[in-house]
Amino acid sequence: MALQKWPNRGASNATPADFMSTRRTQRRSFFVPSPSQIAEPSFVAVDFETANRMGGVSACQVAMVKVLDGQIVDRLNTLIRPPKGWDSFEFTYLHGISAADVADAPGWINIADTVSHFVDGATVYAHNAAFDSRVWRQLDEHFGTTTLPAPFFCSYRTAQRLIPGLPNYKLPTVLHACAPNYQLNHHRADSDAEACALIVCELQRRAQTS
């Protein structure tokens, strides 16, 4: 999907607010697939959980769901042991994962190839892709891996385009509109990734009829 052009910096009627608004629009558009991209029959939905506010290197769980022609065909789900210095568990209350849970889990460097092979060039979606792509990029930067896929799209932003009028676009709300029978265990990466996959399947159907 073509990005909107930035305002002419020399235009007398352009304000700082105009520049910031356009920048936000460009960022949102970056995560929204074109009609041909959303129609691709195969995609992967992903979700990361992090241990703390320090950033993506504190990732403690990743889950992926692979979809082909509207059907889930494969899953990947693993805990991740954050490296020393990034392993303070601040968000256990949210996702239920503690330091003890990941004591014997692999580090990112040990699963990077598996993750990359699972994606295998497919289009990737996350609900709030700005967060998950940032986690993924920071893991790659810290460990020297090159696994971050492109393109990387956002079911949150895409739902805003295709399902206008929802009270909000948080995962439970969009899921209720797209797959109301799915029992979400929110903030568990495996459940959130599957919810994202189901949302994208419904967005694909809506895009075909819009």
TrEMBL record:
One of its GO terms (molecular function) is nucleic acid binding. GO terms for cellular component: cytosol. It holds the Pfam family RNase_T. Gene3D superfamilies: Ribonuclease H-like superfamily/Ribonuclease H. SMART domains: EXOIII. Transmembrane segments: none annotated. This is DNA polymerase III subunit epsilon. It comes from Cutibacterium acnes (Propionibacterium acnes).
